Amino acid sequence: MIEINDSSTVGEVFFAAAIRYADQPFLAFPANPERRYAPQGLELTYAQTAAVVRRLMTCYSSAGYGLGHRVGLLLENRLEHFFHKLAMNALGVCCVPLNPDHRPKEMSYVIDHAQLDMVIVVDELKTLLQQALELGTERPALVSLQEASASLPSPKRPAEDAKVDATTIASVLYTSGTTGRPKGCLLSHRYELAAGCWYATRGGLIAFGEACERIYNPLPVFHVNASVFSFYCAMLKGNCQVQTDRFQPGRWFTEVNESRATVVHYLGVVVPMLLNQADHPLERDHRVRFAIGAGVDPQRHAEFEQRFGYPLIEIWGMTEFVRAIFDADEPRQVGTRAIGRVQPGLEVRVTSDAGEDLPDGSPGELLVRHSAATPRKDAFSGYLHDEAATEESWRGGWFHTGDIVIRDPDGLMHFQERRKNIIRRSGENIAAAEVEAALQSHPAVSQAAVLAVKDEVREEEVMACVVLKSGHGTSLDVNDPLVRSLFDHCNQLLSYFKTPGWLWFTHEIPTTGTQKVQKHQLFAAGSDPRTAPGVIDLRPWKKRDSKRATDAR
């Protein structure tokens, strides 16, 4: 294993790995004859990847890119994302992955907020990017992926005259916040390497071998899981990351088999989708030793393991602090939402709303830190342009996760729910305030409140409670033109997964004396809002854009 220390940088560690594991496979892309690009698949060794990275470094440095510059990557889940990220990080350039499912307005916000110097984009997403640029104020250079390996336009400002070190920001990853605007999480070289090292060295059921593992990851590279967590875990031990373009239930068994995966990553949505598939001749013809993920339905946890023959190891982690907790030691408590016990190098508290420590068995907010002496070590470096939010999240010397957990007397933690206004749908964090803002921009809407409701497949779904302006009734059904208008309005402003899947019209939304919305009073305690009279099911309309889906093949 490649050793790291508090001064290690991404470039140093990668090139050390490229020497030690030169002929070992490092990055693989499964074959898919129906996909438009690289249908035959692709696999590169560490040495081959290093050669590509060095050529890109020459291209970036020749154009003047270095420390202090930020470059956006809109490359879907292609392996080129990792080539460019490694080249940029080795030079001190910060990588900002962009979400291809964003609408122009959403992408425009990220580009402006991150103050990008350049964006590298696949041709199929150029139109989306150009629409986003038209809505914003920043004017980064736009370079197609095909041209990016030959020459790059020079940045408008020079690179900083300093040396890349462990505190240099390697990535800015955008994650939803309760304010409705995504927050840019600053991830240093130290953070990213330490996250991979932590994952690679946990042991138990998730003990990683050296130069022998193949980690199949179908999750998006604009999230921390694929771009940092599993990526550096693979690199540090000379293993291979198999990065597929996206999760497809119909291709899972084939790709896991053909890629010779020994580890797979999942989200809660993956489990019911695979269990709902008909028997497949390859579903038990695999080399998988374990799966890593979060959000499995407790009712189907054991069913999955029995049918497919490998354990689902539930974990806790987040972009701000992906020093994960794993339920990776026997005996596990399958089907209980157990996320494991804390190990040295991570300290936790379970607290009340008032910040008081709660006894074992009581649900409370999970607070985490590295240690009392160095609470923020190996955590994110802060929120971009928002020091106040950063300090608020670390109040009292602990990072406040916003997640509710229960700790057993023996230290085993169980995840309960997410606090406040975040909806977790198929692995995406959705800020309720952002959806509320979109709804309230419709001319017929007076007020809106958005909340999470249970979804048997996607973990949670978006439910919108709407008060219409005078002149509109509340007894509307799915065939009413206003219902379609509201859905289309949101779908044009928001990514498809953020658009409400359930809609309910009401005369009023309860508030406190200071006008804070009381969402918990909208429906009777213990009831399922989806079954309330007048609730409209919009989920059949909620689909990935057909053109986008075609482009992704």
Describe this structure in words.
The chain has an eight-stranded mixed sheet. Strands 15-20-19-17-16 form a five-stranded antiparallel sheet, with no helix packed on it. Helix 10 links the parallel strand 11 and strand 12. Helix content is 28%, strand content 25%. 48% of the residues are buried. It has 553 residues and is of the alpha/beta class.
Rg estimate, integer Å: 23 Å
Task: State the shape.
Answer: globular
Supply the CATH superfamily name of the largest domain.
Answer: ANL, N-terminal domain
Percentage of residues in helical conformation:
25-40%
| Portion in strands | 15-25%
How would a crystallographer describe the biggest sheet? 8 strands, mixed
In DSSP terms (H or I, runs of 4 or more residues), the helix count works out at 15
CATH architecture of the largest domain: 3-Layer(aba) Sandwich
Distance between the termini: 36 Å
- Poorly predicted regions: 546-553
Number of domains: 2
Using DSSP, what is the number of strands?
Answer: 26
CATH topology of the largest domain: Rossmann fold
Strand order of the largest sheet: 2-1-10-9-11-12-13-14
Task: Let me know the average pLDDT.
Answer: 93
Query: Class of the largest domain, according to the CATH hierarchy?
Result: Alpha Beta
User: Which structural category fits the helices and strands?
Assistant: alpha/beta
